[in-house]
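ugh ok fine here u go
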Amino acid sequence: MTIYDNVTHVHEAEEALSQLSNLISTAVTAISISFMLGGVILLIANLTDQEGLAQIFVVLVFLNIVVGSVLILAIGMECILEPICLLGKMDWLSAATCLIMMVFYLVLWFYFVCVVNTYATNGV
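structure:
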């Protein structure tokens, strides 16, 4: 028995696309946990007045924004190419609105990163 016994080998593009929904849901969960961890780090940075911890928050959230942008593209590609997708039970207008709200959510986090980066670099 090796450690690779449970690994599935994807040989065709259709199989990879069918596994994309599992990857998307796992990545959304990981991003949510990472945002919560970043909030705790920012709280500790504010309470202890440590600019270095605030910069850790900035880097962590910026990486989350990049991964979130890739996930939005992956959700869109999944809904275009697969009959069953994350937003499949919605009509096209609701699904498009949901994707646009996800983009605005990431823009809001980018604003938070800019504010915290200003705090960390200026030492306010």
